[in-house]
């Protein structure tokens, strides 16, 4: 059975890598279905010759048993509700409200900060929903969009930071978010895990990581790829004259926005008692359809199906791997890394939590559905590398890293929406997005989980205030050190692309060492040997991530990766 597991795991990883590097130019969902069919066929043949027909007949049950339906149904209902909001003009109402904010004492800067973090505030089940609605609005802030409020450089930072926040907001979403996959497994020990045990670490890490992305785009990306964004500044000496067109929204849009917010609040805080999230969202969507008189055609046009098909295909592949021993094989392979003295458990985990940033696909749910069961096996359920508290810490670091992985993916990832809005070549945002996920978000989420979510929340608990300050101290150190790296590295860049690439890769490795060391500390505290192993694992992961960042960009790359075949 172990041999079968390694064969099916090899099939799955080979197909994913061939797709990632452009050798297979079909949607990832199709490749995942192909992987599922091949794994089941190979598994059936292997079982027939080794165990007979009875073992083959058990495969369908084992296959279906590896598929978790709750996140899929929650995602469907969340997209149903968001589709109703779009069809009724709710996003136009949101744009009007943002316009009022800009003219309020908050001013332009305050409004832009809120706008950038709006995705994580709303936490929709897919970041593409809000991005598709608001990216055209952000484009208007530049010279070509008509308002001329922001320069080309400022607009790149705004669009890039907003897209980064969007393509990570699906993680903490309570309505079919990626994090709910891991929360389901943690529910084996933590009774209230389904209430959102991973939500706060993800949101906190995402907000801080978004700020670092903005800085990276300003100081690094625009220096590495100075001619790969075709946005234009206002001509020199031209008169800046805002040609703002008034944005209007129908009454139905405001009503839909109120119903949408109310549905989210009820789903999150459960003021009327425990009830399935799906029921709340369906009720809200139906009420929206009736009150706002939404036509079925408009409703269906507002629903984005990519994340649903990605999640379903990912769960199919996960079910096939579970039925054929692929997860066990992956666990054994990672277990073998533990036996390498310089890595150990801490080093292996430092690599594992970065896995989806190393191998970014079009939707985080694809690999999350396949790899969270493997991570679960590292806990008391099988390998016992970790206790339950340590498993929760690793889950927090892994999930935020996984959730944000669709942003830098060149396979139709959400970040390509931002690159399109800023008229950039494919790969422009990859360095900024992967750096923030690896160096900022994963360690911050781990520290947050360790010192807050696993603490006793009591007003008289003396540790509570201490833990708050501990998180602030770690956040300042992690962010501060990486900001210094960004400032220092940006001053070393020149005209030589190869030299720039080496400098950037070294910067990634140094930040990866810090990330791996902090993850190891959050798990094993003052075990110096484990921290050193975590540092080495972090360097290995960062090297793999850094080597995936393009040296230079070209129009040929864009034509290849975003052509009609994809």
From TrEMBL:
Keywords of this entry: Membrane, Transmembrane, Transmembrane helix
Keyword Transmembrane helix: yes
Transmembrane segments: 6-24, 31-50, 62-85, 106-124, 130-150, 202-220, 249-269, 275-296, 303-323, 329-351, 358-379, 391-411, 431-448, 468-489, 501-524, 530-549
Key word Transmembrane helix present: yes
Protein name (Swiss-Prot/TrEMBL): Uncharacterized protein
Phylogenetic placement of the source organism: Bacteria, Pseudomonadati, Thermodesulfobacteriota, Desulfomonilia, Desulfomonilales
């Amino acid at each position: 059975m172990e041999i079968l597991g390694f064969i099916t795991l090899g099939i799955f990883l080979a197909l994913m890598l061939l797709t990632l590097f452009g050798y297979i130019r079909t949607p990832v969902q199709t490749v995942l279905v192909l992987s599922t069919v091949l794994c089941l066929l190979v598994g059936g043949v292997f079982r027939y010759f080794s165990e007979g027909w009875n073992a083959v007949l058990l495969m369908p049950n084992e296959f279906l048993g590896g598929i978790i339906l709750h996140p899929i149904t929650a995602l469907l209902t969340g997209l149903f509700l968001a589709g109703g909001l779009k069809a009724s003009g709710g996003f136009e109402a949101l744009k009007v409200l943002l316009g009022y904010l800009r003219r309020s004492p908050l001013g332009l800067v305050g409004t832009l900060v809120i706008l950038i973090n709006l995705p994580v505030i709303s936490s929709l089940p897919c970041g593409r929903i809000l991005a598709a609605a608001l990216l055209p609005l952000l484009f208007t802030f530049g010279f070509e969009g008509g308002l001329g409020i922001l320069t080309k450089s400022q607009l790149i930072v705004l669009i890039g930071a907003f897209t980064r926040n969007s393509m990570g907001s699906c993680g903490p979403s309570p309505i079919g978010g990626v994090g709910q996959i891991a929360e389901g497994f943690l529910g084996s020990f933590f009774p209230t895990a389904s209430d959102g045990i991973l939500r706060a670490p993800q949101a906190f890490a995402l907000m801080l990581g978004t700020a670092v992305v903005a800085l990276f785009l300003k100081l690094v990306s625009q220096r590495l790829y100075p001619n790969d964004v075709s946005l234009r500044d206002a001509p020199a000496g031209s008169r800046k004259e805002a040609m703002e067109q008034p944005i209007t929204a129908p009454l139905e849009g405001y009503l839909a926005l109120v119903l949408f917010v109310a549905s989210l609040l009820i789903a999150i805080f459960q003021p009327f008692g425990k009830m399935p999230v799906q029921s709340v969202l369906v009720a809200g969507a139906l009420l929206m359809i009736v009150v706002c008189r939404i036509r079925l055609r408009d409703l269906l046009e507002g629903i984005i199906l990519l994340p649903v098909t990605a999640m379903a295909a990912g769960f199919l592949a996960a079910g096939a791997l579970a039925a054929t021993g692929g997860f066990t094989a992956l666990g054994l392979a990672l277990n073998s890394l533990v036996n390498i003295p310089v890595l150990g458990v801490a080093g292996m985990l430092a690599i594992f939590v970065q896995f989806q940033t190393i191998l970014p696909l079009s939707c985080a749910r694809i690999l999350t559905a396949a790899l969270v069961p493997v991570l679960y096996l590292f806990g008391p359920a099988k390998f016992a590398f970790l206790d339950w508290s340590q498993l929760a810490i690793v889950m927090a670091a892994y999930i935020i890293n996984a959730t944000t992985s669709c942003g830098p993916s060149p396979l139709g990832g959400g970040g390509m929406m931002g690159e399109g809005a800023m008229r950039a070549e494919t790969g422009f945002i990859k360095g900024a997005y992967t750096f923030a996920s690896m160096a900022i978000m994963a360690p911050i989420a781990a520290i947050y989980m360790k010192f807050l979510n696993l603490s006793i929340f009591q007003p008289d608990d003396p540790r509570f205030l201490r833990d708050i300050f501990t998180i602030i101290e770690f956040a300042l150190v992690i962010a501060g050190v990486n900001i210094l790296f960004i400032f220092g590295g940006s001053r070393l860049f020149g005209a030589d692309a190869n030299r720039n690439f080496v400098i950037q890769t070294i910067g990634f490795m140094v930040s990866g060492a810090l990330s791996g060391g902090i993850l190891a500390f959050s798990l094993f505290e003052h075990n110096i040997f484990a921290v050193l192993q975590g540092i080495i694992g972090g360097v290995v992961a960062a090297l793999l991530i850094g080597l995936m960042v393009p040296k230079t960009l070209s129009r040929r790359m864009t034509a290849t990766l975003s052509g009609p075949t994809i």
